[in-house]
Amino acid sequence: ALFEAAGKEFDVPAPVLKAIAWTETRYQMVVGEEEHEDRPAAFGMMALSGERLTKAAALANVTVEQAKTDPTANVRAGAALLSSIATELGLSDRASIPAWQASVGRFSGIEQEEARAQYEVGGVFGVLRKGVGVLGASARDMELPDVGELSLAAAAPDYGPALWRPSPNYNSRNTSISAVIIHTCEGAYAGCWGWLAQSRSGVSAHYVVREDGGEISQLVRETSRAWHVSAKYDCKLNGNTDCSRNGSSINNFSIGIEHAGFGSQKSWPAGQIEASARLVCDITRDRSIPRDRFHIVGHGQLQPYNRSDPGPNWPWAAYISRIQQLCSTGGGGSSSGGSSSGGSSSGGSSSGGSSSGGSGGSFSPIIIDSNNGRNDRARGYITVSDSWRSSSNVSGYYGTGYFWASAKNVSDGAVFSFYLDSDATRTIDLQWSAASDRASNVPVVAVNSRGEKLGTAYVNQRANGGKMNTVGSWAFTRGWNQVIVSRWAESGKVVIADGVRVR
Description:
By secondary structure, this protein is an alpha+beta fold. Helices cover 24% and strands 20% of the residues. Residues 133-142, 147-151 and 329-360 have low confidence and may be disordered.
């Protein structure tokens, strides 16, 4: 009723208000803190901050304090601000939810173009499309902005699952890396990485993890010095660990990870914690960093005079335990190898197998299913946007089903990521369920761990279904490599992302 009343009062669709609140705060009345200079703290479900907060409060005829702390006043203020923006932009058809896209973008306050587009399309309108607490199935019948229209950033240089969105805010360092610093953005994902990627922000982090864990942005190479902590190291704040670093800038020897969200929030999404744990496992494995609370540390612990992130409700015990579990170690920094199992095929002749972790000895195939529940994500997994739909309608698929998407000239491929412990030439096989509506010229792109395109092969998905088909062999590099099933295929057909085997 709160959103409906505010929407009616200020002539804003209630579903749009709800989607903004979910994108910004997951409906939590947050009490923000300043995480980055020139980025004022945000408050309430609508994450109002700075001049936007002051203006919104005035438009809603409430005090700034009321807009910060009272749920009704906060939502009314957000609705009033959004309505004012719509008037400024000349929005005439206020009943049309898709027509609100530009107003939503300006409401965000995000300046970086790609980040603003992601906030609009992948954030607010993505929530509307999914019907998260808002429109349900009816939203899917609307002509909402398509997340598939967004450009996909390049693969990140150090962590295969991440996207590379380079920030100019870094410098070189010649010290060994011995710590991972956990931050909170004090805001939503798109606005966070969008700010850190701008030179005028004067700050950065190595990584930013989205609220649901479904996307990670890398902004600075791990070997470079990001600007994420404004403090010098004091070992007394960290159990008298590594006291030889006392007086040194923490940025000199650490990797910083920002997490979309707020230090004041009551809980953290399981998907975000899982994605962060996998990232930290990868970092500590590559950098030989011990996996304990003295080397994986909260920002506020090391800079307590003006920071408290990631806040009191960060699940430290479970988080560290999960990192150790993923790396199959009690806390050491070296790689233990790990394994990846494939699973059964519904109609193919493929065999499973596990990945040998070491660089020596024989290599057992890595099989990546379209169902991440069947994958060991420390070794291989799939990533798709909301434009891809899951199905099991046509037999011949690998495992439990497959993803499909309409062929379209957009950078929105299904990304199969896999980890290699050493440089090696590997053969890639694909399985799909064949049918007459499939595209006959589906591009399959191979990308190494440095983000370099190795080559493209084309497969006919109308034929040869129900089995693993050899696509090609490429010289991959140590780290996270990718095989991307692209949507750039013949119009009017669909593209299938099912199973991939690396051998």
